[in-house]
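Worked problem 6 (solution included).
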Amino acid sequence: MSNVRMVGGGNTVDFDPISKYVEDHEFNEVKNRSFSGKLFIYQFNNVRSWSIGARFIPLVDRDKINAWRLANTVITLYPNFDDIPGTFYSVVLVNKSDPLSEMVEGRGWRTEYSGVLNFEETS
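Solution. The predicted structure is:
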């Protein structure tokens, strides 16, 4: 599985996703019908989003990720850094709460965490 890299606020976090992550596109559109009956569809703001499962994230990296989420920091996301290091996106974390709240069992108390990181591309 390929490595995911996040860079934000002068810090870098690398991790291997739990499994194949989900990349989605969100199209915002408005549909209007004129008096003559013709349908007009206006599309604007094509936004990419990702849901990436993460496991074995060290406490220090978890704290960086939470700081980015709380400050709404724009992060540079490299979703496939090992295979295509030149592909990156400007994103923000859109999790409603702490995305890495589950402690990993058997790895030491409060040392490694897991969860799902939800990103949305900034326009």
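Discussion: Residues 59-71 form the longest helix (13 residues).
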